[in-house]
C-alpha cells in the first residue's frame, strides 16, 4: 500500500473482503497478507483515514499480488464525507492497552513555546502521568521514566528529551507513525517494564522534491524529501536547532557568560530493489549543550554539560511469497551524558566530572507468516551487545591528575520470540506468544521466559471485551538523582549485585466503536506488580559518596538498592481521530506504591509520580480548511513529596567544595507523606492556513500555554521567616504566548 502522490508506504490501511469475514491491516512497512475463502471472485475494500477508499474485484482461484495506491481526500471535502472515513476498529483483533495517535493531531495540540511535541501529546493519554511542569517525561501505569522503551525505526533512544526534559527529541515533521503500548505487550517487544513508544520515520517522497519547516520563538526546523531515483528510491532529511544561546547573550554581564542550545537530525534513505526486496537506512542524531562562567572577586566557576543520542538502522525487507516475508536489521544506538565543573576559590581548585555512556550494537531478524485468513505467525530473534561506562567522580585537581576514566562494562542481551494471532471461532481473536530473553555478563548469566497473551471477544460488531497478561524483564536500569533539575541519569547494567527487574501486568477492558467507526471508546482496568526496581539508597546520589573521592570506579553499585512496586487503576478514553471536530477525553484513577529495604525504613510509600486522579480534555475544531482551533485542559492530583517535620541546629558539608557552613539539621519524617497542590492548566491555539495554487502553503500558528496563568507548583523549599521555618512554593511557567510560522513547498 502506497500514497498515490508521494509513493510512500502506508501503515495501518484497513483491508476488508466485502460480504465476507476476512480482513487485515497493513504493517509498518505497508505490506499485507490476506487469505480469502476460495470463490470465482471477491471484492476487496482498501480504506485509510484521510484517503479515498478503493475497491478492487479480483479472482481468488490462485495466489495474487495486489499493490494499491491511495489518493488523499480533496481539501474541500465536507464534514459528512470526512465522517465516513474508516480506520482500524478498536473492537477488532486482540490488541489491548495500545493507542495510535494520528500525526496531524499531534501537530494540532497546543504546547509550550509552540514546539509540537510527541511525548507531551502522549502525556495527555489515560494511564500516562507527567513528571513535572512543562517536562516531557513519561510515567506509565506507575512506572518510572527509565522503564519506557522508545523505538525509532527499531533503534532504542535512551534519553528522548531536550532542554533538561522540557522538550522531546522527536521532530513530528519527520515521523510517520506513533504508537503507545501500555500493556498486553506483543512478544516482539522486550527490555522495559512499563511501556513501548514505537515510532517510524517517514519514507520520503519518491516522485518529487518537497520541503516544509517552521520558524518559532526558540527554535526553527526544516524537512526536505524527494526521489533519489524517481519511483524507485527516496530520501528524507529533517533538522531542528534552538537559538536560546543567541537570545540570552545580550542580557548577560561581563562577569557572567552562559549559553544553551540543542539540535537534532533525522534521516531515511529508501531503495526499492525490486518488488520483493527493499532496503532502507534511517537514523537520528541529537545533542544538547550548555556552558556557564561565573566570576567575582573571590571565585571563578565554569561548567560544561552535553548529552545526546545517536540511533541508526539498516534494514532489508524481503518477500519470499504471498504468505511469508522477513526483515533483517542492523541497529546502532549510543547515549552520552557528560558534566565537567571547575571551581576556583582563592588558591584552591576543585573539579567535578560526571559521565554516563551506553552503546548498543544489535542484529535482528524477523519472519512474518500468514498461514490462513484466521492465522498469522511472527517469529524473530534479536541480539544486542551493550557497552556501559557508568561513572561519577568528585575530585580535587592536586589529588587526581592521572586517573583513567575508562571503566567499560560489556554484556550480551539476546531474545527469541514467537507470536501467533489466530481465531478459534469467528468472534474470538487470540494473540499468544512467548519471549525467551537472556543476559550474559562476565560475572553472571540470566535466562527468563516471558509469556504473553491477549484476547478480544466481540460481543457484537462494535463492542468487544479484551484482556491481556504480560511478563517483562529489564536488564538495563536507569537510576535518577533528583533535586537538581538536570537529566542526571545513570544507566547501569544488570550484574551480580543488581538483578534484572521484572513486571507482571494484567489488563482487562471493554472497547466500543461509535458513529461509523470514527469515534472509539475504551475502559480498562490494570494491575501491575514490579520486582527488583532500581533506585538510590536513602541519602545517596551521584556525588556524595566517599568512594567516588577515593577513586573507586564501581562506587555506583554501592549507592543503589532494589525494591518492589504495586500499581493498579482504571482508565477511560473517548477518542475521535478525524473530522471537523476531533480530540479526546481521558481519565485515570490509579494508585502506585513502592518499597525498598534501604528507603523509608523499609516501609511502603507512595511514588512521587502517584496521582489519584488525572484528566485530559483535548479538542480540535476546523472552522474551515483555513482556520483550525485547538484547546487542551488537564487536571491532576498533586505529586507526592517529602516535607520536613522539624529542624535542629547543626552544620552541614557542601559536597561540591571544601567549605562548611552553619545549617539546621532537618527531620523529614516519612517519605512522600504530603502532596503538592493539584495541577491544572488550559492551553489554546489557532492556525491560519493559506494554500496557493502553486502547491505552496503557509501557516501562522498562535498558541497560549497556561491561558489563565495558574501558578502550578514546580517544587517546594524551606526558608526562615519571622523566626520560624516555612515552606515556600516555586512556580515555573505563567501564561506564555507563542507564535510559529510554518511553510510547505
TrEMBL record:
Coiled-coil zones: none
Subcellular location: Cell outer membrane
A Gene Ontology term for the protein's cellular component: cell outer membrane
GO BP annotations listed: siderophore transmembrane transport
GO terms assigned for molecular function: siderophore uptake transmembrane transporter activity
TonB-dependent receptor-like beta-barrel domain segment(s): 255-706
Keyword DNA damage: no
Membrane topology value: Multi-pass membrane protein
Superkingdom of the organism of origin: Bacteria
Keyword terms: Cell outer membrane, Membrane, Receptor, Signal, TonB box, Transmembrane, Transmembrane beta strand, Transport
Residue span, TonB-dependent receptor plug domain: 114-192
Family, as annotated: Belongs to the TonB-dependent receptor family.
Name used for this protein in its record: TonB-denpendent receptor
Lineage: Bacteria, Pseudomonadati, Bacteroidota, Cytophagia, Cytophagales
